[in-house]
Amino acid sequence: MTTDPPPEPTPEPAPGAAPAASSEPTDPAAPVAGPPGRPRGARAAFRQWRRTRPFWAAVWTGLGGFVIFFLPMAPLGKILQVGVGGIAGMAGGVVLMAMALLVLLMPSQRHTAGVIAVIAGVASFPLSNLGGLFVGMILSVLGGSMAFAWLPEKPGKRRGGLLRRTRPATGTAAPAASLGSGTV
Predict the structure, then answer these.
(1) Buried b or exposed e, range 119-143, using 16+ CB within 10 angstroms
(2) So what's the pLDDT on residue 61?
(3) Is 68 exposed, middle or buried (0-12, 13-18, 19+ CB in 10 A)?
């Protein structure tokens, strides 16, 4: 049985000295710093993606749909109405969760999805166990309203416009205040 000799320790550079160039490949699992202004990790990429769409509106609408959908499946003692209300509750919950996905994945359709979410949330009150015991109805109306009101971030303001005043540069000759003053 043969064994390889242990690897030789690499000397550490002195403090303040530039690190020596290594011919060994870098660790592929190590994070690579990209160009400035770009996200470096998954969390930063998610944050950038989330800020381009009505994320919290989708979360509240989806939670409201979840409550309205799963409340009819609760044990019989916790359900206020059994029968058609259970089917209507499940259908309303599915519609609300679908609107949450639509708002999240297609922000351009946020107005339509927001209005449908508010209508489905209010309709869940008489159709499904008081709108998921009020919690699902309130969450879906809140999320639908937020989706309808959300606006994409405006691009940064441009410097200067069409009606920009120009000031004379300092150090240039200014027009004479009085032309006929008599000084020669």
Answers:
(1) bbbebbbebbbbbbbeebbbbbbbb
(2) 95
(3) buried
DSSP code per residue over 77-92: GG-S--SHHHHHHHHH
Phi, psi of 132 (to 5 degrees): 70, 45
Within 10 angstroms of residue 56's Cβ, the number of other Cβ atoms is 14
Give the DSSP letter string of 137-168. HHHHHHHHHHHHH--PPPPPPPSS-TT---PP
Of 66, 67, 72, which Cα lies nearest the Cα of 85? 72
Report DSSP state, residue 174. Answer: P
**Rg for the chain, CA atoms, rounded:** 32
3-state secondary structure 92-138: HHHHHHHHHHHHHHCHHHHHHHHHHHHHHHHHHHHHCHHHHHCHHHH
Q: What averages of pLDDT result for each successive group of 10 residues across the chain (184 residues)? A: 66 61 52 56 89 92 90 62 69 92 92 94 84 87 94 70 62 58 58
